[in-house]
Write a structure and sequence with these properties.
This protein is mostly helical and 224 residues long. The protein is built from 10 helices and 2 strands. The chain has one domain (3-222).
Length: 224
């Protein structure tokens, strides 16, 4: 499967999940299908990190859409704008920032260059931040992103069982339904290392699909 095919799977299952959460919360199959979306997005984030020519622009784009999406997200899921839960773009942004600092050998801190690259501490700090800000998936999302990154260059036969084991362990913090996220490893396993068709319009369409479908769902639910 190409990167484009994975994006389509992730987007489709995410919309199904959100439809179930907003309109059919008592029908669990929608939520089960939706568990595939986020791990695929985490995998694609790591791939994007490796392929981007400018990680800072990539991060800025995620942050811009995080703010754009927050009002539709709040309205769709809570019926009001607030800070009880932040949308998935914030989680992806924090995860991308963690990857950047893991790879960066030194960075400026209070006007001084600091040589520091403790991967575990960076992942912990990012997980703590995501949990404190109540971003979607919180620390679970950061761990997903981190394991896809740390295991990227390992052979499939070695990395996928380990990724599955770690996902299973962290999913315990979110309830049994989250264990269905392990199903996302099947399409990821068949990724062919090709991005597929790519252009700016298609790229922006996938970004815009998130706030737009949430806004449409909110309008349908509250303005029949």
């Amino acid at each position: 499967m190409s990167g484009l095919a994975l994006k389509i799977v992730a987007l489709s299952t995410m919309i199904i999940d959100h439809y179930g959460a907003i309109f059919q919360n008592d029908i669990i199959i929608f939520r089960i299908i939706g568990r595939l979306a986020f791990p695929i997005y985490c995998f694609l984030l790591v791939e994007g990190y490796y392929h981007t020519s400018n990680v800072k622009k990539y991060a800025a784009r995620l942050l811009v859409f995080a703010f754009i999406s927050e009002i539709p997200f709040d309205l769709a899921f809570f019926g009001e704008v607030g800070f009880r839960h932040q949308n998935i773009f914030f989680t992806l942004f924090i995860g991308l920032a963690a990857l950047y600092f893991i790879d960066k050998k030194e960075f400026e801190f209070w006007g001084k260059d600091v040589k520091f690259n403790n991967k575990a501490l960076i992942i912990f700090a990012a997980s703590l931040l995501a949990t404190f800000l109540r971003t979607d998936y919180q620390f679970i999302g950061i761990i997903y992103i981190s394991i896809f990154y740390l295991m990227k260059n390992q052979p499939k036969q070695k990395k996928f069982p380990l990724i599955a084991l770690i996902m299973f362990a962290v999913n315990m913090a979110s309830g049994m339904i989250q264990q269905f996220s392990l199903l996302a490893l099947a399409p990821v396993y068949f990724y062919n290392n090709k991005q597929g068709r790519k252009n700016k319009i298609l790229q922006m369409s996938f970004y815009l699909a998130y706030p737009l479908h949430l806004l449409v769902f909110y309008l349908i639910k509250n303005h029949p």
